[in-house]
Amino acid sequence: MTTTLDPWLLERLVCPVTRQPLRHDKEAGELVSEAAGLAYPIRDGVPVMLVEEARPLAG
């Protein structure tokens, strides 16, 4: 599933846990926080920035 986000929005979003920038994984449809080890889903083009909705990164 490829997800497109507005570049302006992507530049401003940060991880709610670490306040660090996020990496947009277009193929997975997620915003990834390497610092927190979490991936936040993007549903219907809307980032879901809730820790309880994030999935832990493997590894």
SSE layout and pairing:
Elements: H1 7-12, E1 23-25, E2 30-33, E3 38-43, E4 46-47, E5 55-56
Antiparallel strand pairs: 1-2, 2-3, 3-4, 3-5
InterPro entries: Trm112-like (IPR005651)
Organism: Sphingomonas aerophila
Family: Belongs to the UPF0434 family.
Q: What's the main sheet like?
A: 5 strands, antiparallel
Distance between the first and last residues' Cα: 23 Å
H/E topology pattern: HEEEEE
Please count the beta strands (DSSP E, at least 2 residues each): 5
Give me the CATH fold name. N-terminal domain of TfIIb
Shape: globular
Based on the coordinates given, report the CATH architecture: Single Sheet
Please bin the fraction of helical residues.
10-25%
Can you tell me the CATH class?
Mainly Beta
Report strand %. Answer: 25-35%
Any overview of this molecule?
It comes from Sphingomonas aerophila. This protein has 59 residues and is mainly beta. The chain has one domain: N-terminal domain of TfIIb. The chain contains one helix and five strands; from the N terminus they run H-E-E-E-E-E. Strands 1, 2, 3, 4 and 5 form a five-stranded antiparallel β-sheet that branches. The mean pLDDT is 93.
